[in-house]
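Listing 4. Sequential folding, example run.
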Amino acid sequence: MKNSFLSIFLLFVVLLSYSQEKNKPILKPYKVGFLYSFGTNENFFFDDLDYTYTTSTYKAQAFFNIGNWKNIDLELIIQPQIQFIKHQLINEQFITPDQENYLEKRTEFTQVKNMNLYGLEFGFGAKKKLTEKLNLLGAISLGFSYIDARTERLAKGFTFIENFSLGFSYKTLKRYELYLGTSFGHVSNLNFQKPNDGYNILGLDIGFSYLLK
């Protein structure tokens, strides 16, 4: 599954970069990067006492210019990623007796679970230059993913990922930028499978990018 997502991403980038019209690329990335995010459901915005959920997310990034509006640069961000997740049900009463095999599920889900999520995320970003080296960035994104284990909140298999991020990038050298920000993420499957209570995560993001031009 991970290799499938990576293959789709590489194919998409190649098609965008090398599709020719009058011997010029239609769209090619102006910047590539890498981002690490640590997220948890336990934070000051929301803290569901029924369960614990933490994730370490690693994203490769490709940035494409798509325009400018009132001195704000607009960009498309493509982000293949893997998330390493730790989950545990705290309140076993969340699994009610009317559910099939509820006692077995309580035993299974109250144990710590380590899971992986493989995803491909498409973001729409806006960048505002604050100084010669400092930029304010915001992005909203949506993607699709695969989670390799079930919990009491989400079935194993196909899911959607949604994300909102806000942060700052700082140009350290001519072609290098560092990023520091925060993000709010949601994982669910739009009721394609049951259960679908999903997860809400607040994260801290640290990134590095390289300008190609």
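-- end of first protein; second protein begins --
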Amino acid sequence: MNDKISVKTRDLYIDFFRGGAVLAILLHHTVFWTGDIVPSPNLLRNVSRLLEVPLFVYLAGWSAKYSHRLDKVFMNLIKIWLKWILFISLTDLIYFVVIKSINITSPIQWVYQCYYYTDASWIPLLPVLPASMWFMPMFIALELLGSCFLMFKDRLNIEDRNIYYVILFLMIGLSYLNLINGDSWFLLSRNMCFYGIMYLVGYLSNDLINKKFRFYLVVLLIDLLCWFLSGKLFGIAAKDLVSVKFPPHIMYLFASLICVIVCISLHGRMNSIVEKLKPIRFIGRNSLSFYFSQGIACSVPYMYVQNNPHIVEKYSWKTILPVALLFNVVVGISIGSIFSYLFLFIERQIKKVNCKINK
């Protein structure tokens, strides 16, 4: 099969890239958390930032090209929240059975965890889990805003090329907020400006695929130039991506676009690999389960190394980080697979019940 993979309902490349993004986050959280205790090279810590959450948002925007109907968006967001509630409830139960302790003192506090994700105190031995969940409220708000914008674009028959002006507007806003250290640009936060750009670039990706490699090389060189020039302009070392993620910076945007350019350039050019690596596509199709599970997996080696300082004295990062990464990948994928099949089973049972009711 030499021509471009074609499916009626899904783009297999999006699933494949999303699965790769999950594995990249496992790498990043290994380097960022365990690597924070183990003295590790700054280059490794910065490179791991290139393959992270912005890629997820970009792929969400690409998926929106195929469907951004509000009813489907709302249904999907409800599913995301229900999966989170089920996931955190089971995690709380298992954690309580194993550890015999949990910092939830009332039903109200449990409800708070179901809606607000980021309090790290309720599961002290799994700090990466709640720390990773800052992504969820941002993603839900972005999906709603993005879908509303695209819906009105369709209703008003606005051409896709005009979205580039919106992207430029958001880039100006992000730069301005970075310059004055402000919080909002026309009621949009830095997060919304930054991730809105990634989302809209994803939406336009179909117009940018299947071009000659020369085109992607030129775009990549321009992006690299903008990365280094923005660092110079704001007085930030170009290699210092650690300090420009929270809150997101225009320099981090250009750095994150490297992965975007690579994904677009590879689309349609690695069909045999995409078809054969079904496990990666499975991870991509169920990325939410694996995003949740990596928070559990990555917490274990981090807490173990933190509580055993003699390990850091005995072994270097060259030994500790590969072992931690292997553990995180195996455990993260195992837990994610369990929850993926559990969620699929529940969805099938709900569909069966609905079919019986509608008969």
